[in-house]
Write a structure and sequence with these properties.
Layout (H helix, E strand, L loop, with lengths): L3 H19 L3 H9 L9 H13 L1 H11 L9 H16 L5 H15 L4 H17 L9
Helix pairs in contact: 1-2, 1-3, 1-5, 4-5, 5-6, 5-7, 6-7
């Protein structure tokens, strides 16, 4: 079972996937996912904080993703979109998390939950966004 922030990102991706398919509110997702076994041991404060940040900034996150993506956000797979939301939210709102860590975590989530090569797509989009948002730190990421 994934723990800490990694676990929070993992459960958050599942919650964001469900949000996209069912339109659930952040409060409904917290209630539903906090009852799951996987919720124990994760950084629940980080899960809630990212969920709130993402749901409140969803439109602006989508606009920023669209500026770096090669297709409309609406055409992204829900897993890819959720991973990109998490990565972009961390790049934007959590400067304490190094770009390298944000991108590595996103790639791992895409490998675990996404389509076969979605991790490459996620990596490329987040690399582009990291350079825009965090340059020169992002330039240290040799992908």
């Amino acid at each position: 079972m994934a723990r800490g922030r990694h676990g929070a990102r993992r459960v958050l991706l599942q919650a964001l996937y469900q949000r996209q398919l069912g339109g659930h509110t952040a409060a409904e997702l917290v209630e539903q996912f906090s009852a799951r076994r996987e919720f124990r041991g994760i950084d629940t404060a980080y899960f809630r904080m990212l969920l709130d940040e993402i749901t409140m900034a969803e439109a602006s996150l989508d606009a920023e993703i669209a500026s770096a993506a090669d297709r409309p956000v609406a055409q992204l797979d829900p897993v890819e979109r959720g991973v990109l939301w998490i990565g972009l939210a961390e790049l934007r709102f959590h400067p304490d998390v190094p770009s390298r860590v944000v991108i590595d975590e996103a790639v791992e989530l895409a490998k675990e939950f996404g389509a076969q090569d979605s991790f490459r797509y996620v990596n490329g989009v987040l690399d582009t966004l990291a350079v825009r948002l965090r340059d020169p730190e992002a330039g240290a990421n040799p992908r």
